[in-house]
Amino acid sequence: ERPRVWVSQPLFDDVVARLGEHFDVVATARVTQHGPEAIAAALREADGALVTLNDPIGAAQVAGAGRLRAIANVGVGYNNLDLPALSAAGVLVTNTPDVLTETTADFGWALMMAAARRISEAEHWLREGHWRQWSFDSLLGGDVHGTTLGILGMGRIGQAIARRAAGFRMRVLYHNRSRLPEAVERETAASYVGFEELLTRADHLILVLPYSPQSHHLIDAAALARMQPHATLTNIARGGIVDEDALADALEHGRLAAAGLDVFEGEPALNPRLLALRNVVLTPHIASGSLATRRAMVALAVDNLIAALGYGPDAGRPPSPLNAAQLAERAGA
Ligand code: GLV
Ligand code: GLV
């Protein structure tokens, strides 16, 4: 009998079709907000699953999943998955790093520039028919070139953002849990500073760190109070890193010039205070969303699932495992 895999959301049919070479595929035909019970029920019948950031999976979802051996997450961030619980259940988990790095860095840059130069606000103004009221000081923004870029989280995406800053002649500061090797600092022309120094010195601050209990509301009222009033804040990481009410306060009172947000704490629900503000650019979690990259993410997740379940040329060695060491330790114990 062939293994059975569950595909939680419609992805690219032609890419996902490769699963059918090895497995019986149970695919979800429409975008679905699966409840916790529905996910548990789907996993009970599955040997493997291809899931997305919208599918939360923890101990309760895998408790009855006796056959489940692998979960391939389509996305680099995996805060939708309780990794310790899945490791304890013997489930190998994979994600999709690298393939989205440059595309996501491009978008972070686009959002930062849109916030600084008021691009969304200007377009609304134009579409609402205000051009005849144009004056020489209409819609003036802040410069990006020649300023100080602050990067919070210096993984692959943070480094790709730093490299782009060279053409804009920016000073690049970063903060990260651990300082990068000197060779990487030199190549990205980025200088390590403490968290508070990053906040106070950045003209444009961009968030690219993973979401965890440690990063929950890391950007709160106290952090925002340290930022310069002409600064911008861009978030392409996870919404929960920012206290949205504190951000709305800062933006409403001119204590921060503008924000660019691709991620939100309760997405797809939005904080109405942010929706009411002009000096915030809002996008629906599309930072990795170029066609080529979204296809590459699904292809990598498919490769991971095939290999994790013991098939294909890389059988047993998926390209991007997250908990292989934990599983090996558990098997040896
Ligand atoms: C998107 O947010 C991802 O983590 O891939
Ligand atoms: C995170 O893993 C990144 O690629 O920056």
TrEMBL record:
InterPro entries in the cross-refs: D-isomer_2-hydroxyacid_DH, D-isomer_2_OHA_DH_cat_dom, D-isomer_DH_CS1, D-isomer_DH_NAD-bd, NAD(P)-bd_dom_sf
This protein's GO CC annotations: cytosol
Domain D-isomer specific 2-hydroxyacid dehydrogenase NAD-binding stretches: 110-287
Residue ranges constituting the D-isomer specific 2-hydroxyacid dehydrogenase catalytic domain according to the UniProt record: 8-310
One Pfam family recorded for the sequence: 2-Hacid_dh
Keyword line: NAD, Oxidoreductase
Gene Ontology terms, MF aspect: glyoxylate reductase (NADPH) activity; hydroxypyruvate reductase [NAD(P)H] activity; NAD binding
Stated family: Belongs to the D-isomer specific 2-hydroxyacid dehydrogenase family.
Protein known as: NAD binding domain of 6-phosphogluconate dehydrogenase family protein
Annotated organism of origin: Lysobacter antibioticus
Lineage of producing organism: Bacteria, Pseudomonadati, Pseudomonadota, Gammaproteobacteria, Lysobacterales
